[in-house]
Amino acid sequence: MNISGLIKRITPLCLKILGKLPQCPWSSVMHPLNPRTLSPKRLPIKIDVIETDGDLKKLRFNNKHNLWFPGTTRVNEDLWNEYLSVTWNSPVNSHYYFRDNVRIQPGDVCLDCGACEGIFALLALEAGAKKVICIEPNEVMIKCLRKTFFDEIRQEKILIYQAALGGCCGETFFSYDTSYPSYGIIGNADALHRSKIPLKTIDAISKEIKFDSIHFIKMDIEGAELEAIKGASQTILANRPKLAITTYHNAYDFKCLSFILESYQMTSHARGITLFGSKIYRPVLLHSPWN
């Protein structure tokens, strides 16, 4: 490892010792120093276009997972990294949603908040989930999800629900770029496409679709995670689900989410650490419960 790489790895630890990283727990700060993260063996890019249908195309990842995407989706290293972030079970991948006792068990009902192309939903079904509710605001990705999971929807293993998640119910705009389907933002952003969609709380969705119980909630919704958890209090208190929530979009998310979950008498554990385009370190992911 070169000097710059070493400095990058030890900087969070130095800042924590100096009291300058209150938003990052020690487990997060120590992650870059884990010897198992030094020489990761990444899978080489393997994405094949195996079918087209109008303005959509089906991609096969790693000779294993078949998913429909907008035809304008860029098939490149960024798309491969998005796939690996969900599927790659490696210490170096802080974005991996499963951890020790935060896993899907056979028969679980799961909420996939920010379902996008459905990679996590596929993994949930592979793990034996009874049903996955895919919540996604992007109208184009909703169309793709319905094609990818056509059979599973008929079998009632997958339910597709179009909405943006928040702390209240109403309407909002969702802005997105079909060439980069994993990203979108609530509001009138400068984007190629924009549509008006429902804004819903998880509690409202729970009452509307009337599922019996929720065992696992995965959430990656581009910085709206804190508001979405505020709108999920009844669901969380009633079900005590396992949680895997991204916290890298905003510097304060892990700390705020931890305080909320602590009020529910649930514990939180941080995974990884990142700057994510800013000068403030923050954990990548929150897992709960953690024993």
Q: State the end-to-end CA separation.
A: 34 Å
Give the overall silhouette: globular
The chain-level structural class is alpha/beta
What is the count of β-strands? 14
What composes the largest sheet? 7 strands, mixed
**Low-confidence residue ranges:** none
Mean pLDDT: 92
In which order are the strands of the major sheet placed?
Answer: 6-5-4-11-12-14-13
- Looking at this structure, what is the CATH superfamily? Vaccinia Virus protein VP39
Number of helices: 10
Q: Radius of gyration over alpha carbons?
A: 19 Å
Please identify the top-level CATH class.
Alpha Beta
The helix-strand sequence is HHEEEHEHEHHEEEEEHEHHEHEE
- What is the helical fraction, as a range of percent? 25-40%
CATH-derived topology: Rossmann fold
Number of domains: 1
β-strand percent reads: 15-25%
Describe this structure in words.
The chain is α/β, with parallel strands linked by helices and 291 residues long. It has a single domain, classed as Vaccinia Virus protein VP39 (Rossmann fold), CATH 3.40.50.150. The protein contains 10 helices and 14 strands. Strand 8 and strand 9 form a beta hairpin. The model has no long low-confidence stretch (mean pLDDT 92).
